[in-house]
Design a protein that fits this description.
276 residues, alpha/beta, Rossmann fold, 3-stranded antiparallel sheet, 20% strand, globular, binds adenosine-5'-triphosphate, binds magnesium ion, AAA+_ATPase, cell membrane, transmembrane transporter activity, ATP-binding
């Protein structure tokens, strides 16, 4: 098992009106590719942060690679973090850093402190950064400063870090939000191929529902901190998608997955309504 969550809840503050995750149970076998979908505020980022050991569950149990990181001493948990890679929703790229250095940060967990320090002055594996960037059509940006990149280039630069890492659990939070539809497809294809090549488990949150359904074998729908469905993509219906997003964010807008379909509801929502 790559990861297993049992009855995990997260409450950021004791005073919070509701938990950000409520009783989540979810497990993945090595090599599985899972898309996390759901409206804004559903808990996708929180779930990925829990899997990355960035947030401790308030309740419930997290297992990673068969071990419980929060029952370990800090050093053990840090060592476990080296086996996973989280590409955050907002990439933390220092603006004045060169692209090559920013990408090579993905290799830091594998490096000694001495090697990491040397690389700050003269990148020690520039060819690895170049290869990774080239897979996202950014090979020519190797020595540019990060703050010279466009938003979409910056996003792919952050994903190039994932390619140079050696992690076996890849957690990717909205990797396509700054990309046009063609680049989004190509970028996702690279990420998924990389996960297959290294037999890594991939959990990826996406607002592009059509892309999630087209490319991921397993779809987890989250809303209000709960799993509304966890199904092979063939089993996910338009009705489920419509209910997952219906009135999200509106006062009293609770998803009711058991509610019958409304009479006269079209079989397929228009694309614009299904892609956030
Ligand atoms: N650091 C935090 N402190 C307090 N509440 C938080 C914090 N981070 C997230 N939340 C709350 O937890 C809930 C889930 O947020 P989360 O970021 O996981 O949602 P999301 O599904 O990733 O949304 P989006 O699609 O907009 O990125 C939201 O209600 C959010 O306001
Ligand atoms: Mg998020």
């Amino acid at each position: 098992m790559s990861f297993a969550l049992s009855e995990v809840s997260v409450r950021y503050a004791a005073s919070a009106q509701r938990a950000s995750l409520s009783g989540i149970s979810l497990a993945a076998q090595p090599g599985e590719q899972i898309a996390l979908i759901g409206p804004s505020g559903a808990g996708k980022t929180t779930l990925l942060q829990v899997l990355a050991c960035g947030i401790a569950p308030t309740e419930g149990k997290l297992e990673l690679f068969g071990q419980q990181p929060w029952s370990m001493p800090d050093a053990g948990r840090h060592a476990m973090r080296r086996r996973l890679f989280l590409a955050p929703q907002t990439p933390p790229l220092p603006p004045r850093q060169r692209v090559v250095t920013a990408v090579l940060a993905g290799m830091l967990p594998q490096w000694s402190i001495g090697r990491a320090l040397r690389s700050l002055f003269a990148p020690v594996a520039a060819e690895r950064a170049f290869e990774a960037l080239s897979r996202f059509d950014l090979g020519d940006k190797l020595y540019l400063r990060v703050d010279r990149l466009s938003g979409g280039e910056r996003q792919r630069c952050s994903l190039a870090r994932l390619l140079v890492s050696e992690a076996g659990l890849l957690l990717v939070d909205e990797p396509l939000s700054a990309l046009d539809p063609v680049l989004a497809e190509r970028t996702l294809a690279v990420l998924q191929q990389e996960a297959r090549d290294r037999r890594a488990t991939l959990a990826c949150s996406l607002h592009q529902v059509d892309l999630a359904l087209a490319r991921f074998p397993r779809i987890v729908g989250l809303r209000d901190g709960r799993i509304m469905f966890d199904l092979p993509r063939e089993a996910v219906t338009d009705d489920m998608i419509a209910k997952l997003y219906r009135d999200a964010g509106a006062p009293g807008g609770q998803a009711d997955m058991d509610a019958p379909a409304e009479p006269g509801q079209p079989a397929r929502q228009p694309l614009a309504a299904r892609c956030f």
